[in-house]
Design a protein that fits this description.
This protein is mainly α. Helices cover 85% and strands 0% of the residues. The protein has 14 helices and no strands. The chain is globular, with a radius of gyration of 21 Å.
Amino acid sequence: MAASLLIRNRNYRLLFTAGALTNLGDGMIVLALPWLASLLTRDATAIATVAAAGRLPWLLFSVPAGVVVDRSDRRRLIAQADLLRAAIVAAILLLALGEPLSGAIWILTGLAFLLGSAEVLRDNAAQTILPSIVSTTELERANGQMWSAEQLTGQFIGPPLAGVLIAAGVGLPFGLDIAALILAAGLVWLIRLKPTPPSGLRFFSALREGISFMRGDPALLRLAIVLGLSNFIATSTLTVQILFAQEVLGLSSAGYGLVLSVEAIGAITGSLMAPLAIRYAGLHACLYLSIGVWAVGYATVGLSHSGVIMAIALFAVLAAAMIWNVITVSWRQRRIPSELLGRVNSIYRFFGWGSMPLGAMAGGVFVSLLEDEVGRTLALRAPFLIAAASCFVLLLYAIAKLKLEEE
């Protein structure tokens, strides 16, 4: 019955379709951007800088972005952010199609930073607008569907599609992303909501109000801390995952692509089964089980000698991660007042997403420091084994301290 209610919700259909389109474009960019960087330079540090530049805005701008979201028409802001992203991708397309320029890799780094900055605004606004579109009883199902569509288009379809398009021309993924972003902006523009008066507070007063709410809610603050630590752990393994697959497991590019496809199917599965899991196992059991699965999954990858085992373990890790996401996002959307949702959500994501570039750097540095002492193979296994132990400690903390009131 709930599914049919969502299908009949015109605003939800528009937001869902727009999200699927933008995530399809994001999935293509995930592959196309570093590929373009590799054509501009063979300097590994410079190529890594392009990737880091796209994530850095989450650390720098998450908190002030929340104030902007609460002081704006969220529907308009999403559409404007998508159009801005289309313009930035158009600039990247021109760089890809033009004659090689001196310092082109650093121009690409700057454009990646701008693209990530626009994404911070867009994603924050999109997550805070959902409670205005669906009822509180439908949030888990709506978030589950949104997350599954994001994984399907952004991880399962987007990167392989970009690979096919690049073979025909490096600019094609960027051109298709521009079209997807413009179409998504048009769909969001068609959403009709009752206008809500924006916050009348000055910027820093509004920011302090959001920080005060976050500090005054111990459960929300602890949840943000757990998310930040878990994302730090996850990105520390992602940094070395491709090297582990190549050098330790001996996987080809096609074999590793298959592992990533299985991982994406796990994410889709977790997103869709989350409402059912919550109903039968309960909110806290699902949260604790998710962290436990992360610990077992990372340990399994670290000890594995087979791409099949790695794929199964990552399937479980991503399924658990999506169950966690559906639970925590829906809980926050119900708990935080609508007029504060942008600011508090952005502070929360500062903890959760701001740790990701730090984790990515930590994983690579750790392997570099360790390989002279224990050898390359063990050094590449170590981040996964340390991640498993860290998740076990995180589980003990969550069981002791993480108690979410059921709204």
